[in-house]
UniProtKB/TrEMBL annotation:
Listed PROSITE patterns: HTH_ARAC_FAMILY_1, HTH_ARAC_FAMILY_2
Protein name stated in the entry: HTH araC/xylS-type domain-containing protein
DNA-binding in keyword set: yes
Keywords carried by this UniProt record: DNA-binding, Transcription, Transcription regulation
InterPro entries reported in the protein's UniProt record: AraC-bd, Homeodomain-like_sf, HTH-like, HTH_AraC, HTH_AraC-typ_CS
Signal peptide (residue range): none
Domain HTH araC/xylS-type: 173-271
Record's keyword annotation contains Transcription: yes
Transmembrane segments: none
Length: 280
């Protein structure tokens, strides 16, 4: 499985939570040395001077630079003798299963927004969402945070994404590749666990911790993706599509297809193949 596909799988199962946020000039005692947070931080520098240390790297961020200070990395920050920073900032978690997104995807520690107004607009949107008194306020905050993470990744990562390698992914990536090539067949947890050389129960936990989705959910997702493709690119009957994706029970296929897409297979084909409007 390529890095791009694996990164997209991570993104599909990303869960973000914002713990605090703001826009302000830092205090005169803005200084902390050698601490390790259990959350990520974004700083978008608007004005002023200061100093950051992230891991072994030291920075004197300039206006327009957007910094990521990752969870679990030793860091320091301090004011300097010049004008104090004014910045947008937020503290947040970004998890796939129980893994931090930035432990999985390699990104630089800052991007230069070149004073892009869109970056400021996204931080303002986050603050405005937090101030919303409506019942949907928490959803607005989560949506705004996802847009911030998306902006940062899109501007920080080249067209070919790089992933951090841990001690676990290699056998799991082999399992993902096996599912991609063999989802048409009857796949069992025992078979997949053997591919990863793990006990079945432990395999399920490790798979979900790594990808944020269970092996069975991933197999079903892959099969439904292929069913959607065949519905809009061929005239095959549903029974043959079922055989091709490893689901021979047409009633079951129709049910899980509608649960996933909101369309019956027939309505999906009519809507996306012949450009007819069908109400889901």
């Amino acid at each position: 499985m390529g890095n791009q596909s694996l990164a997209r799988l991570y993104m599909e199962n990303l869960d973000v939570r914002v713990t605090s946020m703001g826009y302000n000039q830092v205090w005169t005692d803005w200084r902390e040395l050698d601490y390790t947070p259990d959350f990520n931080k974004f700083y978008l520098i608007c004005d002023g001077e200061g100093w950051l240390k992230i891991g072994d790297s030291e920075f004197r961020p300039k206006p327009g630079q957007w910094f990521l200070m990752p969870h679990g990395v030793k860091q320091s920050y301090s004011y300097t003798s010049g004008p104090r920073y004014t910045k947008y900032w937020c503290h947040f978690t970004a998890r796939i299963g129980d893994r931090n997104l930035f432990d999985l995807i390699q990104t630089p520690l800052y991007v230069d927004t070149k004073n892009d107004s869109e970056a400021i607009r996204l931080f303002r949107e986050l603050l405005d969402s937090d101030a919303a008194a409506s019942i949907s306020g928490p959803l607005l905050v989560k949506s705004a945070m996802l847009r911030l993470v998306s902006y940062y990744i899109e501007h920080a990562v080249s067209s070919e994404v790089s992933l951090h390698r841990s001690t676990e992914p290699e056998p799991l990536e082999q399992v993902i590749s096996y599912i991609q090539s063999s989802y048409r067949h009857n796949l069992t947890i025992t078979d997949l666990a053997e591919k990863a050389h793990l006990h079945p129960n432990y395999f399920i936990r490790v798979f979900k911790r790594q990808f944020g989705i269970s092996p069975i959910q991933y197999i079903k997702k892959r099969r439904l993706e292929e069913a959607k493709l065949l519905l809009v690119t061929t005239n095959l009957p549903l029974s043959e599509i079922g055989d091709r994706i490893g689901i021979s029970d047409i009633s079951y296929l129709s049910r899980i297809f509608k649960e996933s897409t909101g369309f019956s297979p027939t309505a999906y084909r009519m809507t996306f193949n012949s450009h007819q409007t069908v109400s889901p």
